[in-house]
Amino acid sequence: MGTVDTVVLQAERRQAGGSGEARRVRVAGKVPVVVYGEGRHETLEVNAHDFTLMLHRHGEHQVLDLVIEDEPVCKVLVQEVQHDVVNGAILHADLVAISMDKPIEMRLPLKIVGDAAGIKAGGVLELVIDGVEIECLPGDVVEDIPVDVSALEIGDNLTAGEVALPEGLTLLGDPEEVLITIAHPTVEKEEPEESEGADAEAEESADEEEK
CA 77 to CA 166: how far, in whole Å? Predict the structure, then answer.
């Protein structure tokens, strides 16, 4: 874990349009992008290969230096990335223009760390909620929030308020919300064996039918 690196993303303006325009952009090897916030709302396109590689290297929660043609650099945050459900290709992305001195609200994923004592005892770890809503300055954004589950026993719950947030992050929402639980192992019920008497009765019925 660590503060997300700031990287540069080159973009070009595109015509606002429907699905036909978006398909044209994708066929050309680009990704349609929308940037909004801080008084702006623009439709852009970015190189699909470069954008995909950037997300693989740095994750989808990061501050970018967005360069739109000859304009001054604009600080943005990756808000949402839509992927093709079949091949995983990026279909569209939303970017939010930000000021580095203004707090932002966002949802960060949890990263489970350690082996829970309850799992070693046969329990099952259940991730009830996979992320938490936080507030922080853009410069304090991290890729994920590590959650140490080592001390959790069977029957234990871990709530949002019990997670040690990295410096600069403030939890939003209910601190009593359960994120992780160590459930009791599932015991499969064995089918009761038929008694010998039942088997004998079945055989006698079969004999009678044959007669």
Answer: 19
Helices (H) and strands (E) in the chain, counts: 4, 13
Residues of the chain with CATH 2.170.120.20: 105-183
Measured between alpha carbons, how far is 3 from 141 in angstroms, rounded to an integer? 6
Distance of CA 83 to the CA centre of its chain: 13
Residue 1, pLDDT score: 45
Q: Are residues 171 and 165 in contact, defined by beta-carbon separation less than 8 angstroms? A: yes
Distance CA(183)–CA(210), nearest Å, equals 53
pTM, to two decimals? 0.71
Domain 105-183, CATH homologous superfamily name and number: Ribosomal protein L25, C-terminal domain (2.170.120.20)
Structural fold of domain 7-98: Ribosomal Protein L25; Chain P (2.40.240)
Integer Cα distance of 81 and 178 in angstroms: 27
Q: H/E element holding 50?
A: helix 48-58
